[in-house]
Design brief:
Layout (H helix, E strand, L loop, with lengths): L4 E5 L4 H14 L6 E9 L6 H7 L12 H23 L6 E9 L2 H11 L4 E5 L12 H9 L4 E4 L1
Parallel strand pairs: 1-2, 1-4, 2-3, 4-5
Helix pairs in contact: 2-3, 4-5
């Protein structure tokens, strides 16, 4: 197996789901390979109030002001379980290890680049487009990642 730690940055878009499919095609036959399905929660933006309501298990979007960090952590845990649900749907007969993860970072690009360094990632497989505006040929996150990491990046439509 050439790639041992493959990162699939996951933003719940169909493109990112296609990226996971490709990553599992590459790593699936290898029990020693690991695929990381990872969502970046940008710390610069306030989370969606409905996400907050879910995170706090309340029907009201009323935020406990005591700990913003605790709330962000809950949001990250929710993102993690969304990724875990996708993994269960996509696993098929893959023999590789597949893990769900979520990190809080200043931006998706920064979070992905930092994750590549800290988890010994040797390949990134990501959507070329994501959840975003219909502009340009390649999304800003994919473009930023291409510029910021030293490992190969495979972009998927
Ligand atoms: P833009 O956001 O500039 O409008 P876009 O939404 O079309 O463009 P990108 O945001 O670059 O495209 O998304 C491309 C890919 O980047 C996604 O398919 C996904 O793999 C990854 N990605 C985007 N945002 C995140 C995020 N917050 N966490 C993890 N991966 C992400
Ligand atoms: Mg986007």
């Amino acid at each position: 197996m050439y790639f041992k730690n493959i990162l699939v940055p996951y933003d719940e878009s169909d493109h990112a789901k296609s990226a996971l499919h490709i990553a599992l095609g590459l790593a699936g036959p290898y029990p020693e390979a690991k695929v990381h399905v990872m969502t970046v929660i940008p710390s610069s933006s306030l989370p969606d109030p409905t996400l907050l309501a879910n995170a706090l298990e309340t029907p009201y979007a009323v935020v406990d002001p005591t700990s913003y960090e605790r709330i962000m952590q809950s949001v990250a845990e929710n993102a993690c379980s969304d990724a875990q649900a996708l993994i269960e749907q996509s696993r098929d007969d893959s023999q590789c290890e597949i893990v769900a993860d979520a990190v809080i970072s200043n931006s998706p690009v920064e979070g992905i680049a930092e994750y590549v360094r800290s988890h010994d990632i040797d390949l990134v497989v990501m959507g070329r487009r994501g959840l975003g505006a219909l502009r340009g040929m390649i999304g800003s996150v994919s473009f930023g990642v291409l510029r910021s990491v030293d490992v190969p990046v495979l972009t998927v439509k």
